[in-house]
C-alpha cells in the first residue's frame, strides 16, 4: 500500500526510522530491533540509506523487505542519489519492486567525504527533485521527501529553500518528513510558510529523542539545529549522568510530541537510533492520546 493513503485514514500517523547495522555487524542484528518495535504497531518503518554521505553498498532494500514481507509492516526505503549513478539507482528501483516495496524517501544525500567526489556529475541525479521525477515515471512507487523547518544547512535563505521545496512537491512528492528540531515554534512558523506557498501534502514531523551526549555533538555538526534554552538547561544538568539524561531526553521528546499532536500535525516520525527501549517509552507515554485522536470523529 501507499503510505500517503494513511494520512487520510488517520489523524496522526506514527512511524519509526531505523538504520542498517554497521558493515562489520551481521544483518541479523536488525531482527532484534524490529522484534521490539513491531509490537508498538507503527504505521510504517523507514530504513536509512548510506547516511552521512557513505557510498558503500548497503542493506536498505534487504531490511525494508524484512519489515514488509516478514513483519507485514509497511516499509519506507530511503534512497539517495548524489553518490550513485542513474544506472545504480535503476538497479535499486528494480530490487525494491521485486521485494514489493512501493514507498521510497527520495533524497539527494550528504556529500561524501571523498576529495575526488565530483558534483554535479552528469551520470548522477543532482537534487532530490530529479530523483523524485525519475521515480515517479513509474506509478508503482509513492514518493516521500524531506523538508527543513530551520532551512537546509546549504540553503541561501529560508525563502529559497521553500521555493525549491514547493517544486519538489509539485514534481510528485506525496508527503514530507521534517528534519529534527527541538523548538516546536520553528515548525509552526515553517508550516505557515509552506501553507502560504501552497504546499498541500501531509508533513510528518521527525522527532529525535536525545538520550546521550554523542548525539548532541552530531546534531550540532550535521544539521545545526537550534537548541532552546530549556533544553540547554537539561543538557548542562544531566550531561554526566547517563540514566538521568536518558529520562530527561525522553520526557522532552514526549512533551514536544504531545504539543505537536495537539496542534494537529499529520504524523510523528520517531528517529529511534535503533534503540527500541526509547521508542517503547515514548509510544507508551502518548498511546492514549493517539488512540483518543484516531478514534474520535471530530474535526482535526
Ligand atoms: P534536496 O531536497 O535536494 O535539497 C538540498 C539542498 O539543495 C537544499 O539547500 C535545497 O534548498 C537545494 N535545492 C533543492 N533543489 C534545488 C535546485 N533545483 N537547484 C538548486 N538548489 C536546490 N541522508 C542520507 O545519506 N541517507 C538517509 O537515509 C537520509 N535520511 C534522511 C531522512 C530525513 C527525514 C532527513 C530530513 C534527512 C535525511 N538525510 C539522509 C540527510 C539528507 O541527505 C541531507 O540533508 C542532504 O544534505 C539533503 O538531501 P535532500 O534530499 O533533503 O536534498
TrEMBL record:
Pathway annotation: One-carbon metabolism; tetrahydrofolate interconversion; Amino-acid biosynthesis; L-methionine biosynthesis via de novo pathway
InterPro entries: FAD-linked_oxidoreductase-like (IPR029041), Mehydrof_redctse-like (IPR003171), MTHF_reductase_bac (IPR004620)
Cofactor(s) listed in the protein's UniProt record: FAD
Any one biological process term the GO annotation gives: tetrahydrofolate interconversion
Molecular function in Gene Ontology: FAD binding; methylenetetrahydrofolate reductase (NADH) activity
Cellular component aspect of the GO annotation: cytosol
EC number: 1.5.1.54
Entry keyword annotation includes Glycosyltransferase: no
Catalytic activity: (6S)-5-methyl-5,6,7,8-tetrahydrofolate + NAD(+) = (6R)-5,10-methylene-5,6,7,8-tetrahydrofolate + NADH + H(+)
Keywords: Amino-acid biosynthesis, FAD, Flavoprotein, Methionine biosynthesis, NAD, Oxidoreductase
Superkingdom: Bacteria
Record-stated family: Belongs to the methylenetetrahydrofolate reductase family.
Matching PANTHER family: METHYLENETETRAHYDROFOLATE REDUCTASE (PTHR45754), METHYLENETETRAHYDROFOLATE REDUCTASE (NADPH) (PTHR45754:SF3)
Full protein name: Methylenetetrahydrofolate reductase
Protein's organism: Clostridium homopropionicum DSM 5847
Amino acid at each position: 500500500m501507499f503510505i500517503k493513503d494513511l494520512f487520510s485514514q488517520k489523524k496522526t500517523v506514527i512511524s519509526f526510522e531505523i538504520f542498517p547495522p554497521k558493515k562489520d555487524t551481521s544483518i541479523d542484528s536488525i531482527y532484534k530491533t524490529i522484534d521490539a518495535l513491531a509490537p508498538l504497531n507503527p504505521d510504517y518503518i523507514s530504513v536509512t540509506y548510506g547516511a552521512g554521505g557513505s557510498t558503500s553498498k548497503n542493506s536498505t532494500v534487504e531490511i525494508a523487505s524484512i519489515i514488509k514481507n516478514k513483519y507485514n509492516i509497511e516499509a519506507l526505503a530511503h534512497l539517495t542519489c548524489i553518490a550513485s549513478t542513474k544506472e545504480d539507482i535503476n538497479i535499486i528501483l528494480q530490487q525494491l519492486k521485486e521485494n514489493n516495496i512501493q514507498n521510497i524517501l527520495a533524497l539527494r544525500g550528504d556529500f561524501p567525504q571523498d576529495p575526488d567526489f565530483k558534483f554535479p556529475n552528469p551520470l548522477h541525479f543532482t537534487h532530490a527533485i530529479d530523483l523524485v521525477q525519475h521515480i515517479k515515471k513509474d506509478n508503482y512507487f509513492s514518493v516521500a521527501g524531506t523538508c527543513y523547518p530551520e532551512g537546509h544547512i546549504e540553503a541561501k535563505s529560508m525563502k529559497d529553500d521553500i521555493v525549491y521545496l514547493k517544486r519538489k512537491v509539485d514534481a510528485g512528492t506525496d508527503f514530507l518528513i521534517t528534519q529534527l528540531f527541538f523548538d516546536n515554534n520553528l515548525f509552526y512558523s515553517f508550516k505557515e510558510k509552506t501553507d502560504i506557498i501552497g504546499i498541500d501534502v501531509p508533513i510528518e514531523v521527525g522527532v529525535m529523542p536525545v538520550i546521550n551526549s554523542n548525539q548532541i555533538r552530531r546534531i550540532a555538526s550535521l544539521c545545526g539545529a537550534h537548541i532552546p534554552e530549556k533544553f540547554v538547561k537539561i543538557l548542562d544538568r544531566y550531561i554526566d549522568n547517563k540514566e538521568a539524561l536518558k529520562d530527561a531526553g525522553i520526557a522532552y521528546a514526549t512533551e514536544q510530541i504531545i504539543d505537536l499532536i495537539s496542534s494537529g500535525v499529520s504524523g510523528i516520525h520517531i528517529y529511534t537510533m535503533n534503540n527500541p527501549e526509547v521508542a517503547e517509552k515514548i509510544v507508551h507515554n502518548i498511546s492514549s492520546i493517539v488512540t483518543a485522536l484516531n478514534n474520535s470523529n471530530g474535526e482535526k
